[in-house]
Write a structure and sequence with these properties.
The protein is α+β, with helices and mostly antiparallel strands and 160 residues long. A five-stranded mixed beta sheet has the order 1-2-3-4-5, with helices on one face.
Length: 160
């Protein structure tokens, strides 16, 4: 009876120990599939908030690489304004901060997928004539806020 009891306790312990890892793996698979299914050539019309410039954007999903083309409607300069370059340099990493709105499981799974699959964004900015005026590539695991996001706990998680 004692041996049977010990096997049952060890089995339950193994289940409770392994279950969170199983949940994380399942969530990573779900997120990975979702990211792979982002439609190619997704378009955004009339981006108005790039320092007052109106632009059109198109994204190519070559998972785990995403290429974003941004064409400025009225900009004829040969180089993107410095203010626009700054926004583009920070755009992807700042976007990761939205993960704070997700559960710890989703947040950690997303960060793991970004790291394991080596996600990166490449931004190619063009003027109204179609000439390239700025190019920037961001490897997502190199974002300065990654470590903070792994460690982040929202108020609900702290209560538990």
């Amino acid at each position: 009876f004692y041996a049977l009891f010990m096997i049952a306790i060890m089995g339950l312990g193994g289940y409770f120990y392994a279950y969170p890892a199983y949940q994380l793996t399942q969530e990573e698979d779900k997120i990975r599939q979702s990211m792979k299914q982002i439609p190619n050539q997704s378009r955004t019309q009339n981006l108005e908030n790039i320092y007052g410039y109106t632009a059109q954007a198109e994204m190519l999903n070559q998972y785990p690489n995403y290429i974003v083309y941004i064409r400025f409607d009225e900009l004829s300069d040969q180089t993107a304004p410095e203010s626009v370059q700054d926004i583009i340099r920070e755009f992807s990493c700042d976007g990761l901060n939205r993960l704070k709105n997700n559960s710890e499981l989703v947040r950690k799974a997303t960060l793991n997928v970004i790291k394991e699959d080596q996600h990166q964004f490449q931004y190619i900015l063009k003027n109204k004539l179609g000439y390239e005026i700025f190019k920037y590539q961001q490897v997502m695991e190199n974002c300065p806020n990654i470590a903070e996001l792994y460690a982040y706990q929202n108020a609900e998680e702290i209560k538990q």
